[in-house]
Design goal:
Largest sheet: 9 strands, mixed
Radius of gyration: 23 Å
CATH class of the largest domain: Alpha Beta
Strand content: 15-25%
Number of strands: 21
Bound molecules: pyridoxal-5'-phosphate
Distance between the termini: 56 Å
Helix content: 25-40%
Amino acid sequence: MDHFLYKDGVLHAEDVALTEIAAAVGTPFYVYSTATLERHFRVFDEALDGMDHLVCYAMKANSNIAVLKILGDLGAGMDVVSGGEYMRAKAAGVSGDKIVFSGVGKTREEMTLALTGGIRQFNVESEPELAVLNEVALSLGKVAPITVRVNPDVDAKTHAKIATGKSENKFGIPIAKAREVYAVAGAMKGIDVVGIDVHIGSQLTDLEPYRLAYQKVAELTAELRSDGHNIRRLDLGGGLGIPYARSNEAPPLPMDYGKVVRETVGDLGCEIEIEPGRLVAGNAGLLVSSVIYNKAGEGRDFMIVDAAMNDLIRPAMYEAHHDIVPVIEAAVGTEAAPFDIVGPVCESGDTFAKQRDMTPVADGEMIAFRSAGAYGAVMSSEYNTRPMIPEVLVKGDQFAVIRKRPTFDEMIKRDTVPEWQ
Ligand SMILES: *Cc1c(COP(=O)(O)O)cnc(C)c1O
């Protein structure tokens, strides 16, 4: 459920008409709903009710600090994958003891940043990383709390580019090798082994891969304990999918996911961490865009819009589907027709939808891409020297720009011409 509904024929974000935001900031723009973000965080928090747990929002999904603050204020921890994200989490007021550091290529600088500023744990993904972390911690006179990310070799049955839990993926340590690596970690003076980490992929629409992975984690917990490790925390990753096409998708509910967690690892006496990103932010955001031209092609009608692949890359990168709706509801009885909805960028890949059935939208009128709150703005670029589009946050009847559109001047001034040129 989200808070983007038509009122008097106009699509609203909570109580604000998108037409009002467009008049203030121009199109295209991203708009996020506070109530939806809060609701999605609470749904996860409640799904783990009764278990000692922390929901660590995977902030790579949407890392605007206003978004982080909403979640942080509700008690969320953060899962970060870079030094920059760590600094953003801090800037949003999240304390280090609630920040988990994931990622396969943490640098010494990033480790130092987190060890100095405070960190809940590092999720270590390789033996070389473990050795470097030990070294960095010792050099700072600190002990780094860690889990080892294990790769359980289960098929997440999701898009190849976002599956991470098969042995052919670059992530984690093969679970069969885990005891060996934990033995090495346990002997390091700069390392404190606190638990196990697993994350098998993103946009999962089936709970079975989770069940398989978590069963393996439960077995490993027993083995590691018998090896003498004090396993007290399990980080179970994120990845629960969202319905991108409302007409035909119904991914599992967080409540049912919580049940799988309870059934597989609930009685191990471990603190549970989960790292949802997409499910928290995805359906809490829209991308709003204006139609520049309707262009009749040969046997095909194109809707050329002012948003492009640089603003929302998911369709080009993952062949992702986003529901696309008109901001002004079509009159009752208006017939839908197939359109190719495309951006202005000079690449054929700059196509949001092919032969999508839509009611016609006139030049100058607006459309909205649903489910654009996660992996939208964060993956945008200035390709074609298109300014990064504004992000707007709505709460009830209020809205505010939480990242403004840069001017052309600001963009161009970031380049410098060498003095010898
Ligand atoms: C991307 C990622 C997540 C979040 O995945 P979602 O599909 O957005 O829930 C969580 N943990 C790790 C380690 C990740 O890389």
